[in-house]
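Illustration: SnoaL-like domain-containing protein.
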Amino acid sequence: MKEIDQVAQTGPDATRLPFYHCPRPTAQGHLRHRDAPQNAQTARCGSQTPLPITEFVAEPMEHTKIAQLIDREAIRDCLYRYCRGIDRADEAALRSAYWPDAHDNHGAYCGPAEGFIEFALGVFKAGPRNIHQITNILIEFISSSEAAVESYFTALQRAPDQDGDVRQTLLCGRYCDLFHKREGGWRIAERTVVYDWIEEQLPPAGVEEERFGPRRPIGAPHPDDPVYRFGKRRIPSRHDSSEASNDTAASAEETEGPDNFAMLQRSRRKTVP
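Result:
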């Protein structure tokens, strides 16, 4: 509520009296009138009679929309944790995406999510190269604690087959998930993987380290991947202080050595990932 002084009358003896004013509403809600304070004086045509004060009252619907935005972000974060869990063979990240009683249908595996987690970790900890990307996330709330979620994915996988030959496969499809909210957190309660595209590719020849050349570091499973050097999976953001950024650079220089660190910085500027 703003209090604006207005002149009640003109001339050298003019008095300035408070005028209560409500700005135009900026969100969904309604205007409610209430009585002005007893000591308030409102100037209107020289009258000293207090006028009602108008105030803006937000509708409950606004709170519901804000809560849904927070829930949507929590669901997206869960999907991204799943990708990290698979690509980095990170057991904690993978388990955090499912409820303990969740069910998973991946085609090659169909059953309790606990069994899929053990199956996936047994495969991906052996050293296959995996890249999972999530796009086109459509979230439809069934209730305040349930949501149907469709997420498009692209996965590039490279691993030896039963004969020891390296195979590379490009997969595209959708994760069709039922999310439950329990104790304030969102996780997958049921998942069905729908496959829309598969392409067998010829793996490039040569040793992987030689193909990367100076492009280091190379991604690795948990806990050896560089992302885990930042504590609890934390990556510095643009909001961090300059001192924190300098400390991170100094730490990297100490780990890699001055010469290696400088060479790494130069190689990053010359190449496009």
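Reading the tokens back as a structure: The radius of gyration is 30 Å.
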